[in-house]
Structure formats: structure tokens, C-alpha cells
Amino acid sequence: MRRLLEILTRPQILMTLIWVNGLGTLYGYYWYKDQLLTTPPIFLPLVPDSPTSSLFFTLFLILLWYNKRNPYIEAFGALLSVKYGFWAVGIIFFFGYLYGEIHWSSWMLVVSHFGMAIEAFLFLRFYTFKGKHLLAAGSWILFNDWVDYTFDVHPWLQSDEFDIPISWLTVLLSIIVISIFAFLRNRKSESNKFVGIKSETEYIP
Q1: CA 80 – CA 78 distance, rounded (Å)
Q2: What per-residue confidence (pLDDT) applies to 188?
Q3: 103-113: per-residue pLDDT in tens?
Q4: pTM to 2 decimals?
Q5: What was the pLDDT predicted at 194?
Q6: What SS3 string covers 72-134?
Q7: What phi-psi label fits residue 40: left (phi over 0), alpha (psi between -120 and 50 degrees) or beta?
Q8: Closest Cα partner for 172 from 193, 156, 149?
């Protein structure tokens, strides 16, 4: 584990991750352009789920680069990345199985979203968020789920036929992700699992 932490914090690795996540964020917002153009302005912040996730994680990486910390950004970046990373992979495989084909572009999304979720776990030891930060991020995720499937502003799917079961599974995934990070956060007080960079780290409340 120590070896992995050393690799993740190497300047060239960290800067590469910042660029990859940053460019992926920009592409993600571009990917949502058609849906954003047809969405009422009040719901716009709730539409581009994955790029917003990677935006928060990119901000976390940038702060880490400068040896600064913001627990709210960490919590939003981690929880959203895991939730929407696995959600996208699951949706792509579900419709791929249903229609018997997964397009090459969808495989690119599978790789990028799975990487987004795994990446959030790789940086576990660098997170400093506590209960209130976890509560804020978790509340946002559940609120986003409610808006998505109450006002039909969830990411466009290949068919609306499965909106109801997908909505319930989406909420279940949110609860699971929140529970996982709550469990990991609780272990911090016992075994310091969420220890960040200890030397001269500046915290931004």
C-alpha cells in the first residue's frame, strides 16, 4: 500500500491524472450537450452526472498537487465518482445484454467510467472528509436521484421502458455507496484509514 501511495503522488503521475480527468470532464459536458439544450434551466446542474463527478475529483487532485485539502470537494468527488462510475457501467451492460450488442464507443465509456470509480478508491488514504461532508455529498446524490426520476431529467437511455426498475436500482446503488464510505470513514477513528498527507497540509474548510 505504501508503494502505491508513493506512485500516486509522484508529480508526473498526479499531473497526468489531473489532465486525464480534466479532459474527460470537458468531454463529458460536451457529451451531454443535446440533453442540456432541452432541459429546463432549473434542472441543468442535475443533468451531467458523470462529468460533474469527475470535475469534483479533478479539483481534489489539483488541491492535492498543491498540498491543500477541502473535505467537501473530496467527499463529492469520491462518492459521485463511485456511484456514477458503476451506474454507467451497469447501464451499458444491461442494454448491451438486452439488445445483444455493445458499440465500440460504449466500451470506451465502460473503461472510462470503471476507471473513474476505481480511481476514487485508490485515493482513500488521502481523504479527510468527516460525517458532515459525507452527509452533504450523500444528500446531494439522493436528491439528484429523486429529481432525475421524478422530473425525468436522468441521463437519456436507449429505452424508457425500464425507468421504474432502473430508478429503484439507482437509489439502491446510492445507498450502498454512501454506506460504504460511511463504513470507511468510521474506520478512520480506529485505524486512520483516511490519513492524508501529514506534512504541511493546508486544509480548506
Answers
A1: 6
A2: 60
A3: 888 899 999 99
A4: 0.88
A5: 45
A6: HHHHHHHHHHHHHHHHHHHHHHHHHHHHCCCCHHHHHHHHHHHHHHHHHHHCHHHCCCCHHHH
A7: beta
A8: 149
